[in-house]
Amino acid sequence: MPEQFKDIKNQVRDSYAKAVSEAGGCCLPVGGDTHLGTLDPQAQAGLLGYSQEQLGKTRGQANLGLGCGNPVNRSDLKPGEFVLDLGSGPGFDALLAAEMVGPEGSVIGVDMTPEMITAATDHAQQAGASNVRFELAEIERLPLADASVDVAISNCVINLSPDKPTVYRELYRVLKPGGRICISDVLLEKDVPESLKNDPAAWCG
């Protein structure tokens, strides 16, 4: 991995570790200047289409307002499917997916931030969700066998990778033939200056 990639990933990891213990997210901070940034995480999630039932109890505690969409509700999950949550954070979407696939299915959440893995595991235990687990790993190197995943979801994470082609190659590798991807993320409307591309602080600022 190029040295600048390591610096970028370390910056992102540190920002999201901090987000676990602070209100709001590192990319949509409470009181910030984004169109959702002045809302608390629950209100923000409501605007993104999550129901009050989904936001209730332990699942609501797992919502830190870090997403930018609602891949779970659009992924057409079915009972018995194996789901990968790419960059699962505190486990909000993964827990919802675990409910949707039922006891015959299972979910794995992958995140590179140890604090997120700890929080997500705690939330799963509090929810009594036995069909979901969380593993510390980078999304460019998924800890999964080839052709093992029915559905991959991701919520505002892939934009944070400095090596997006590798992310998509890994997704292709782990998906079963006919598998599905449902991604919510931010997109560029114009080229980003090289100075910003190579500035670790700009990746989550």
TrEMBL record:
Residues 78-203 form the Methyltransferase domain. Transmembrane segments: none annotated. Keywords: Methyltransferase, S-adenosyl-L-methionine, Transferase. The keyword S-adenosyl-L-methionine applies. Gene3D superfamilies: Vaccinia Virus protein VP39. GO terms for biological process: methylation. This is Arsenite methyltransferase. It comes from Desulfonatronum thiosulfatophilum.
